[in-house]
Structures are given as C-alpha cells and as structure tokens.
Amino acid sequence: MTAEPGLPFHVTSCSKIKQYLTLKRYNDLKEIRTPSGYSLDQAIRSGIENPDSNIGIYAGDMESYDCFAPVLLPIIEDYHHLDPGWSHKPGLQEVVLPDLDPEQRFIRSSRIRVARNLGKFPFSGNMTPDQRLELEKTVKHAFRNLPEKLSGTYTAFTDLNEKQFHALLKKGLAFRKGDRFMDAAGINRDYPLGRGIFTSRDNIIRVWVNEEDHLRIIAQSPGGDIANVFNRLIQMIKALGDKLDFAFDPKKGFLTTCPTNIGTAMRAGVHIHLEKLEQNLSFLETITRDHHLQIRGTGGEKTAVEKAVFDISNARRLGISANTILKDLHGGLQAIIQAEQKSRSFSGPGLG
Ligand code: ARG
C-alpha cells in the first residue's frame, strides 16, 4: 500500500490511518485543535512511528471524535464492520446463562472489561501530570463511596516500592507501562504517576486507573461462568456511572482513547485450553468468525498462543449491545467446546 505523497507513512504500513487519511483530509484537518489543544499530528503519531500499526490513531479527548470525524468515521465504520445507519445499542442487563464448563475441563478463566473515560478530562495520551492526579483523586472519591458489597481498596503505584509492585504484578493486580504503540501516543507519559488499581474485596472486580483509558473496569474469575462475571461487572459499571460522568455519545456510545474500543467499549473473553483444535486452526477460525469472536494469544493482544491456551473474545464492540456480545460469546464457546470435545473423544479415552 503506498501512502499519499506528502504524508509520512512507511511504505510497508497497512494501517487504517494510512488508508483513510488522504492528503486533502490531512490538509483540511491539520490546523484544527480540540478544546484541550489536541491536533491531528498528535493523534496519528503512533501510526507514523509504528508502521506495523493496525489502526494508528488515538483520540486525545472526547471532542476528537467530532473534530477529526472526516478521518475517524471511515476508520470506525471499516474496523467495526458497520452497516449504514449504525448506532450504539444500549443494553446492559443482568443475565442468566448456564456455566458452559462447570468441571473446568476447557475454560481456565473468564474476563470481561469495559473502558470508560471521564468527559471533562483530556484522554490518556493528552494529559498533564496534574490532570492525571486530579482524575485519580476524583475516581478515588467514587471508590470510597461505593455500596458495601462492591467496596474494596485502591492502591496507587507511586505508593509502592519495587518489591511490592512486582508482587502485585505477579498476582495480576498491577499493570506495566504500555507498549510502543501507546508510548508514541503519549499514553505512557509520567508513568507511574496517577496510575493505580482498585480491587474489590472478593477479588472479582478490578479497576485500572489512568492506563490506555481513564478507567478499565474489569471482572474476572476462574472457570467459565461468564454470566456471573458479566453480572458483577454491570453492578460495578452502574455504581461508578452514578458517581462519574462518562464520555458518551448517543451514536458512537462510550468514547475511548482508541477508536477500536468505542461503543460498548467491552471485551468479553475466556482463556480456553484447546489441545485438539490447536491442530485444526482453520476450523477454530471458522467457528470464531461465525460467532463474531476473535482469537488472541495467551498473553493478550499481539502475543502468541502458548500451550494451546487461547484468548477468545468478542470481535465487535459497536452497533450491538453488551448483552448481544455476551450472547455471541456464550453461543460461540458452546460450539467450540462441542468441537473440542468431539475431537478429544475421537482420539479414544486416555489418548487425548
Ligand atoms: N494502535 C495500535 C494499532 O494500531 C493498537 C490498536 C488496538 N489496540 C489497543 N490496545 N487500543 O495497532
């Protein structure tokens, strides 16, 4: 793919930003500043510095989505496979769904997260140190006032020494500085300042503060009871939403730093052990595609699959409700488990 003359995208880049940022669009948008002072040049820096970007653009505040709409909208419509007339679909109701793997023969753990940002602050790549601290203060106040059954503790990374931080990391209770894509977008700036994690007393809910998004609200638990994980997540989202003003647009849904996350901003997935389907990846890919799911590596985005443990999650976030995402995941996992079970039994008892 060749870049438009004049735009500094690498010849090898296949990013969406390179595909959709025509020279005319660039010239029309390059002087624009959002209310928090964010420019198109800042938004696309990561895509320019990282030719292997898939998308290559980040929003610097909620207004970026309107200011840079001529380039962001086609990217969003392409990435999320949207039909004309698309719109965010609300729908965040607790569900009853059977546990697909009560004996935990396949599903190791279930994890659902949503990203949320506070409308009145610039987004993560565009924050000053004071703004990060102010955001942390606002969110800490909300954590302190949660209903009893959701309550927990907040740990600021700046309050920890290296040993304590690594102990948390090992338990999956901290997050590191982000990758080079986030780095070029300014998201890692001043790390670990203002960063931290809230953990609920039962350990199911975690909230990352000041990572790629202001908040990543996460519910996770061993095993495959995704309905229970989803219901716990909803309670937390609602409780925090009562206290904080989330960046939201009726058409685009919840607004996030990366345009891949807007809409429900939800990723619902499992770690699942598929020793047989690993030998038949094209079959696994067909099932996941049919159920609108995606496969990631064991360690998450841009990592490899290790020891046949796949990370399988929803591929769609915008244009369908969170409840539909969960239904797709449940149906898809049922099909995957059936296929894996069938090929395990073909190998005969004790052999698979
Ligand atoms: N900016 C990176 C790219 O374009 C990541 C995109 C999606 N991932 C994310 N964590 N937002 O490939």
UniProtKB/TrEMBL annotation:
Q: Where is the Phosphagen kinase C-terminal domain?
A: 106-343
Q: Which CDD domains match?
A: eukaryotic_phosphagen_kinases
Q: Does the keyword Nucleotide-binding apply?
A: yes
Q: Which UniProt keywords apply?
A: ATP-binding, Kinase, Nucleotide-binding, Transferase
Q: Which GO molecular function annotations are given, in alphabetical order?
A: ATP binding; creatine kinase activity
One Gene Ontology cellular component annotation held by this UniProt entry: extracellular space
User: What Gene3D superfamilies is this protein classified in?
Assistant: ATP:guanido phosphotransferase, N-terminal domain, Glutamine synthetase/guanido kinase, catalytic domain
This protein's source sits in the domain of life called: Bacteria
Residue sites binding ATP per the record: 109-113, 216, 267-271, 296-301
**Per the UniProt record, which residue ranges are transmembrane?**
none
State the InterPro entries in the record: ATP-guanido_PTrfase (IPR000749), ATP-guanido_PTrfase_AS (IPR022415), ATP-guanido_PTrfase_cat (IPR022414), ATP-guanido_PTrfase_N (IPR022413), ATP-guanido_PTrfase_N_sf (IPR036802), Gln_synth/guanido_kin_cat_dom (IPR014746)
A Gene Ontology biological process in which this protein takes part is:
phosphocreatine biosynthetic process
Where in this chain does the record put each Phosphagen kinase N-terminal domain? 1-81
PROSITE patterns the UniProt entry points to: PHOSPHAGEN_KINASE, PHOSPHAGEN_KINASE_C, PHOSPHAGEN_KINASE_N
**Member of which family?**
Belongs to the ATP:guanido phosphotransferase family.
In Swiss-Prot or TrEMBL terms, this protein is called Arginine kinase
